[in-house]
C-alpha cells in the first residue's frame, strides 16, 4: 500500500487513541488459541475451537480498546504472574546459547556468576563484585 492511500489514512485515524499493542498477554492469548486449535484437529472437539475463538476475541478486544491505562495495568498484572514462570527457562536458554563461546564460573566468596571467553588456557579471574582472584582453565 502507498503511504498516502486513503484506506491507510482511515485505518490510522480509526486506531488513534486505541491500545494497539501486541503485548505479553496478547501474545500469550494468541499462542494459546493457536495451540488449542491444533489440539482440536487431533481430538476433534468443538469446545476447544470455541475456547480458542473466545481467546482471539479477547485479544482483539484488548487490541482495539480505548482504555489504554487499564490494558497496561492488566498486562503488568499478567507479567507479575507469568515472568517468574518463564524467567528460569529464558536464563537457561541464554546460557545454552552462550555456552559455546563462554565458560561460566562462580566466585567462591560472593557467588557472583562470571562469564569468561573460551580457549584462553589458564587465566586469573578477578571477581568484579568482591575483587577475589582465582585461577581457572578456560
TrEMBL record:
<protein>
    <submittedName>
        <fullName>Zn-Finger Containing protein</fullName>
    </submittedName>
</protein>
<keyword id="KW-0472">Membrane</keyword>
<feature type="transmembrane region" description="Helical">
    <location>
        <begin position="32"/>
        <end position="61"/>
    </location>
</feature>
<keyword id="KW-0812">Transmembrane</keyword>
<keyword id="KW-1133">Transmembrane helix</keyword>
Amino acid at each position: 500500500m502507498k503511504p498516502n492511500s486513503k484506506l491507510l489514512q482511515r485505518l490510522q485515524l480509526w486506531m488513534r487513541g486505541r491500545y494497539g499493542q501486541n503485548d505479553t498477554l496478547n501474545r500469550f492469548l494468541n499462542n494459546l488459541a493457536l495451540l488449542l486449535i491444533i489440539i482440536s484437529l487431533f481430538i476433534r472437539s468443538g469446545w476447544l475451537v470455541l475456547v480458542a475463538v473466545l481467546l482471539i476475541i479477547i485479544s482483539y478486544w484488548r487490541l482495539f480498546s480505548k482504555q489504554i491505562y487499564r490494558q497496561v495495568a492488566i498486562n503488568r498484572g499478567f507479567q507479575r504472574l507469568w515472568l517468574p514462570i518463564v524467567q528460569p527457562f529464558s536464563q537457561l536458554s541464554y546460557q545454552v546459547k552462550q555456552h559455546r563461546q563462554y565458560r561460566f564460573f562462580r566466585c567462591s566468596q560472593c557467588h557472583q556468576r562470571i562469564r569468561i571467553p573460551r580457549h584462553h588456557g589458564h587465566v586469573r579471574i578477578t571477581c568484579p563484585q568482591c575483587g577475589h582472584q582465582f585461577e581457572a582453565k578456560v
